[in-house]
Amino acid sequence: MTWFQTLPYLLEAALFLLLPGGLVTLSLGLRRLSAAALAGPVTISIAAVLAVVLPFAHIPWSPAAVLAGGILLAALLFGIRFFALRRLHPGRSLRHTLTTASLGACPAGTSPADAQHPKAGRPRSDVWVAAAFVAGAALILLELAVVFGTPESFSQTFDNVFHLNGVRYILDTGNASSLSMSKMTSGDAAPYFYPAAWHGLAAALVQLTGLPITAAVNVLNMAVAAVVWPLGCMMLTRTVAGNRPVAVGAAAILSALFAPFPLLLLDFGVLYPNFLAISMLPAVLASIALLFRVARDLQWPPMPRFTLPLLILPGLALAHPNGFMSLLALSVPIVLQAYARLAADHGYRARHRNVRLLASLGLGAGAVALYLLWTNIRPPEDAAFWEPVQTPRGAVWDVVANAAIDRPAAIGVSVLMLIGLYVCWRRGGGTWMIAAFVITGVLYVVVSGTLKGDLRSALTGVWYNDSNRLAALLPLTALPFAAVGVDSFAVWLRRRLDRLAASRPAETDSAAKEKTGAGRGSRIAFTAICGVLALAVVASQVPSMRAAIGSARMNYLETDHSLLISTDEQKIIDRLDGIVPEGDAIAVNPWTGGALAYALAHRETTAKHILTANTAAVDILNRNLRNADTDPDVCAALKATGVRYVLDFGANEVHFGDHPFPGLENLNNSLAVRLVLAEGGARLYEVTACRGT
User: Membrane-crossing residues (predicted)?
Assistant: First the structure.
């Protein structure tokens, strides 16, 4: 399969991510950017919540269920809006009310000025914003195509064993619930919560398109990175910059020019659930800013303002809990700014005497809830084991220069970011976003540049004390300021050129014509200079992006020495479906990649993740299968597990460790098995012992 052949599937994935949620945002009265940017997070939330609910109704997981959920929710919300409008305007005709509900409530997704002049200046700015989105999405798609190499390549990393097998498990069981997917690896123990929103979406895309799991995973990640992330960045920038089309369009292009996201989480880990959660965060954070009315020159009507955060938050938590916790941390400045504004408005408080008391009580309750959530929604200490990677000074430089995780300094976006920070500080009203930038920066400095200790764990344990996870958050708060920097520079340059044109004397008609020509020339000069500077900024990002792409690319290469599945091992896996009957299971050492036979060849394996909790029967096989011809306990374990084959992928482990599985090793001199297939150092054996049991 070529990348060109995947284009229809990419469009399907984008439509799948936008359509159910888009119906909901439109039914709430949102239009244009607001409707588009929130559509993806709403779809993800619908899918994640339905995945938990459907098993209780004995309904199997499918993309049709997600679409049906979106349609039903949109119809419900539209009905509520319709009857609310009927009550507010009882004298209006039924037709007029229906038309108003269908067109959206003014000023949904617009500023008051936009509502008064809905057509003013829109066509040109809309074309620019749309073109910028297409350009940003295309850049991201190109970057990821280079990273993945081929549509069916997969990440040769530790966590991908679980992720790919998790998708297969959902397809086999018809259950994508975050409450039960861990049953795949829990052995004899009860299942536990695991955020499975990403896995459910990937499984739905396999069902929708018929693609192999590996290709569907790549297509899904490309669609999320090139659609959900840029639209969210544009929406967040709109709340920070106000009605500034240049800034909003610049945000789309800049979304492709930060090395820490989306590339880093598709490289390290690989952390697909975190990747999905952070892709949602810009739009979700914008909805919180609109909820508390701290957005610049933008307001939503009450219904979408209060409804959308409630709709999206469950999906964010089910995408990954630390995405939800990241939102809580970044929402603190929003809440405080809204409270400070209320406290300073003496006239409003005089008219509504109980408001400040209620707001103070709410603020106190929120602080208690934040403390309880912060101390409880975090991984166990033994999972948050990551060490600091540099000095505090180096970590501060990473934040300022957008050079996190040993990447070259991103000079272009960093200069624009600093300009935007200064402009927002001078302009006022964006304190919440400046504080959010400081929060992410401080958290990164703490996790990356300070010694292990209680304070470090208290602050960053939510993110496993991992520099990579927090580095991926840095573009979220840096990008809007870089976009403001672009807009501010464009305004300054245009004014300078206009002044130069206006300074020329116009004493005669011919001189006036020359002045008109000079004005036209200044516009041409403005466009040319902006184009050159845009190319310069993109060029300045090349070292940083080349390093990020090169690092990620290494993890998707299949070679003779790949850490998870080598070329020889892949050849064995490709032939499993023609050798191993469907009902038979394969004994594997997951550390050497054998567990991926479940995802890639659709054959049952004794382990589906490297950290699988084994059943008692599997433990017996791992210790003693090679002696099945003499040990009756092994025969009983073979019968209990259905194991009839063994994959031996040698001793090379994904993390260069040494985890012995004595029952599955040195099978060349075992009388319990026979060699069926060999490719290089990879072997497939059939268990010949215990056939009579």
Answer: 6-28, 35-58, 64-85, 127-148, 213-234, 246-265, 271-291, 355-374, 408-425, 432-451, 471-493, 524-542
